[in-house]
Amino acid sequence: MGRDPPLCPPQPLGPQFLSRCTNSCTALLVETKIVASALHAVATPRIVDLACPKIKIEGLCYPRERTDMPIRPITQAALLNVPSPRTVSLAKAKTLHQDYLPDRDPYWPVSYAAAHSKISPRIEELANPSARTPMHIVYYDPSVFNVKPAALKAQCSPRVQELAEPLTR
């Protein structure tokens, strides 16, 4: 009695390997020697049962007799199980801190004071931009780079004059 055919059929050689193989290649193939006890071994029914592939049901649902039954079968031990106090305490949701304030709603009513406020004249004055001459006028105005007459008549102090002279080394 030889090997049990359903348990271990040998893998056939691929067509790519056979087409590449030459006479020298076939000479290099190693001959496998099987022990006589392995040739006469008989598989037990349990081994044959384990060797069969597991039958998987298509999809996630199991067939149900009634619609009120759960999708997956629940064991009787799981149905009769009573959780311990530690498991119950771990299953409870974590509570928020007592000083926690939830996020403010994106919409809230405007207060009466904000809706009926009056602007002071100083705030209105500061809200206006400073009056400057436009750049297209300043850019082409040749008098912009003239030195003012007061700056031409200015006299510097003797200390500034002393600091302005270069050091002699």
TrEMBL record:
This protein's UniProt keywords: Repeat
Protein origin, superkingdom: Eukaryota
SMART domains the UniProt entry points to: THEG (SM00705)
Keyword Transport among UniProt keywords: no
Cited InterPro entries: SPMAP2-like, THEG
Pfam families hit by this protein: THEG
Protein name: Testicular haploid expressed gene protein-like
